[in-house]
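Page 47, continued from p. 46.
Same chain as before, 98 aa.
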Amino acid sequence: MNKDKWDEKEDYPNLDKLTNFIGIEKMFEMDDETFLNYIQPKLWYINQERAWLWKCNAIRAMVNSYEAKYGEYIKKACHNNNENVRDMAIWACEKLGL
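Result:
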């Protein structure tokens, strides 16, 4: 599991390729293909079958650091095709009074 693991004394490999995808809004709007090709190989602890968890984590981050602009993303997620994402978005709307 730890074979060839990254050592913090080194630069993180291919970080420049990830920077285009990092940010709460970008993570939230990311499609599954982008997630599976760019993010998941680096953040392997979220397996492919649970890619929906990525959007749930983005919603949770939006709630924790709420800005008015996040409201539109959270409301949009209430209609996501994944039940887990919808449930998280509904929870967020209730918590934030949206």
